[in-house]
Amino acid sequence: MRWFNLLPPDQRFSRPPSVLADEFLDYSREQFELVLEDLGAYPASPPVAVEGPQILPDLAGAHSVFLVPTEEFQREGLFRRQPDRLPQLVERDALLAPRIREQALALGRRVIDVDGSLDPGGLVERLESLFAPALMTPRPPVDLAEMRHDQNALITRNLVAAGVPGFPYACECGRSGCTERVELTPAEFATSERVVAPAHAR
């Protein structure tokens, strides 16, 4: 789908919503190869949650849950967050949601219909209950510093590919709950043994 990325925005989304929906699904399948490549760089533990509209039911495994908005809830949310969203994209999304729901159910994947009746906290509780078996499985201690370094390394590959000159890298101190950032160029990251915020350098 490289040709799609090279198109100017006014040409990308000028086609009928049904065509845009098919292109979105094709693009998602191509992008999934990159998702698998990134996941392969992570350690086996702890579990990694992968989310996003490009994760389709026929690509995900059995340990997956699909949050599918109703058309009314989707339209209301889109126009509230993006009032200038192109009508073609609104209609495309309205076509995609039932297709993804139908495919998920046909493959035996779990589906949560999102209609606004559950607040974000309620959705989290529902997801935690569905993922409880995987979350409760005993696992060895996690090296948080190593895991964060692996994440930063993956980000660097994307930054280099996109030509981004700098990025606020996550601190690799290994402390649980650390939210410190360190501004570096990809080249500086590559030559750093570990990225640690000044406040956590001791």
Spatial arrangement of strands, main beta sheet: 1-2
Radius of gyration: 20 Å
- The fraction of residues in strands falls at 5-15%
First-last Cα distance = 47 Å
Largest sheet: 2 strands, parallel
Tell me the count of domains: 2
- Helical segment count: 9
Number-wise, the strands total 4
Low-confidence stretches: none
Indicate the percent of residues in helices. Answer: 40-55%
3D shape: globular
Structural class: mainly alpha
Average pLDDT value? 86
Helix-strand topology string: HHHEHHEHHHEEH
Description:
By secondary structure, this protein is mainly α. The chain has 2 domains: 2-136, no CATH class; 144-200, no CATH class. It is built from 9 helices and 4 strands. The strands form 2 sheets. It has a two-stranded parallel sheet. The protein has a two-stranded antiparallel ribbon with strand order 3-4. The mean pLDDT is 86.
